[in-house]
Amino acid sequence: MRTRIAAVTAASTVLLMASSTIAVAGPQAQDAADRVITGRVHTHRIMEHIETLSVDIGPRVASSVEEAAAADYIADQFASMGYDVEIQEFPYANTIGYATLHGSTDERLLTRVGGSSPLTDGVRAPVVDAGFGAPGDFPADTAGSIALIQRGQETFVDMLANATAAGAVGVMIANNTWNIFSVNVSNAQIPFVTMNDEAGEQVRAAGDGAEATLRVERHTTSQNVIATQPASNPRYDTGEAVVFVAHYDSVPASPGANDNASGTATLIELARAYAALPTSMELRFVAAGAEEVGLVGARYYVNQLPQDDIDRIVANFNMDMTGTAGEAQSMLYVNTLDGDNLVAQSSRAAAQRLGYGDRIFAPFHRGASDHVPFHDVGIPAANHIWREPGTAQLEPWYHTPHDTIDNVSEERLRIAARILAASSYDVIRPVRR
Ligand code: BES
Ligand code: ZN
C-alpha cells in the first residue's frame, strides 16, 4: 500500500481535473474541488432517508426483519444510482421480541426480549393489568391473557411464575423509568418482553379488552449492503479504493435516528453525490449490519477481503452519529486508533477550508465503531461523530427510545456531510500525479 499523505498535503500543487473542467493549481483549485462535491450533497435528502429508516422502519436490531427491510431500502437506493449492489449475508443469531398494541391503528411498542423467553411467532390476546405481579394482583380473567406487570415490588422470577400460575399466555414487564432494562430469567415458561414506563402507560391507557400480540423470534443472519463503482476515469485510475462505511442497525427499542440512521443516510447521499463524478479510484459504500452487537458486519466484510484488495484500500471513512441535536455535542470528533492518519488529516483540512475549523476535533483516540476492523488490517480508518468538547460525551438519549428524528439536527448533519464530502473527494478526485 502506498501512502497518500503526500498527495493530500500537496494537493494544491498539482493540476486538478474536476468534472469536465481543468482547474488551475493552488488554493482556489482546492476550493473549486470542494464545491464540486459539497454542491451535490443535500441535507433534505439525508433527512428523508433518516425518516424512512427511523420512523417508517423503526428499530433495526441485528438479525431482525426490520434490519433486513432497511438493507433492502438501502440496496434499492444504491441500485437506483447505477451502482453494482450486493447484499452480503453473514451468520448472526439473535432472539428479538416485539409487542404490538391493537386498536384503531396498530401501535408497535418499543420492547426488549426477555432473556430465555420461549419463542412465538405471534400470541394475540387481551391484555390484563396485573399490578406488580404479586399472586393477588392477577384479575380473574388472566387465563388466556397477556399480563401487564409493573416493575417495582416482585422479583422477575416471581412475576413470571405468578403469571404462569394465573394462566397468562404472555407477559409485558413495564419499567418505572424511560429506560428499557433487559432481564435474564432462566426459567420463563411463557413469552415475555420488557418495556419502559411510557409503553406500559400506553398499554394501560388502552383499557380493558385491548388486545396485543407478542412475538419472540430467533433469526440467524444479518447482512451488509455493498455498492461499488470502479474508477470512472481510466486515465487517472490509481488502482486504489476508498471504502465508506456506516452501520444501519440499532439497539433494541431505539429508533436509532442518530445512531445510526444519520450516518447511513449520509452514506446514501454521498453515494448519490459520487455516482456521476469522475473519480481516480474505486469507490465502495458499505452499509454494515450488526454493529451494535460487536462490529460483526464490518468485521465480516473486512475478513472476507483478499489481501490484495486490502492493500488497495487507502482510506476508510466511517460515519456513526453524524446528526445529533444534543446541545452539548457541538464538536465533530474524528476517532482513530493510529493517531493522525490520512482520514483524520484530510477531514481536519477539509473542515478548515469549509470554515468549520473550530467545529472539528481530529484525531481523537477511540474505537467502538466500524472503523476498528479496517484499522486492524492496516487501513487508515476514522469514525466521524458529534461529541461534547472536552468531555467527549455522547447525547443523553444515546441507545434509548428517545433517539428519534426529533432529536436530529439538520445543521449538524449538513456540516458533517460537507466535511465528509470535501475530505473524501480530496482523496478520490482525479489529479495528474
Ligand atoms: N454509535 C455508537 C457509539 C460510538 C460511535 C462510539 C463512534 C464510538 C465511536 C456505536 O454504535 C456503539 O454503540 N458502539 C458500542 C461498541 C460496539 C463494539 C458494540 C459501544 O460504544 O458501546
Ligand atoms: Zn452507532
Helices and strands in order:
Elements: H1 5-9, E1 16-18, E2 21-23, H2 27-38, H3 43-57, H4 65-80, E3 84-101, E4 107-109, E5 111-113, E6 120-129, E7 146-150, H5 156-165, E8 170-174, E9 192-195, H6 197-206, E10 211-229, E11 241-247, H7 257-275, E12 282-288, H8 296-303, H9 307-312, E13 313-319, E14 331-336, H10 342-353, E15 360-365, H11 371-376, E16 381-387, H12 410-428
Parallel strand pairs: 6-7, 7-8, 8-9, 11-12, 11-13, 13-16, 14-15
Antiparallel strand pairs: 1-2, 3-4, 3-10, 5-9, 6-10, 10-12, 14-16
The structure holds ligand BES and zinc ion.
Summarize the structure.
This protein is α/β, with parallel strands linked by helices and 433 residues long.
Describe this structure in words.
It is a single chain. With 433 residues, this protein is α/β, with parallel strands linked by helices. The protein has helices spanning 5-9, 27-38, 43-57, 65-80, 156-165, 197-206, 257-275, 296-303, 307-312, 342-353, 371-376, 410-428, and strands spanning 16-18, 21-23, 84-101, 107-109, 111-113, 120-129, 146-150, 170-174, 192-195, 211-229, 241-247, 282-288, 313-319, 331-336, 360-365, 381-387. Strands 3, 4, 5, 6, 7, 8, 9, 10, 11, 12, 13, 14, 15 and 16 form a 14-stranded mixed β-sheet that branches. It has a two-stranded antiparallel ribbon with strand order 1-2. Strand 7 (146-150), helix 5 (156-165) and strand 8 (170-174) form a beta-alpha-beta unit. The two termini are 16 Å apart. The relative contact order is 0.17. The model is unreliable at 1-24 (pLDDT under 50). The structure holds ligand BES and zinc ion. The site of ligand BES has 14 residues, from helix 7 and strand 16. Ligand BES is lined by residues 259-260, 291-292, 294-295, 320-321, 335, 366, 368-369, 383, 385.
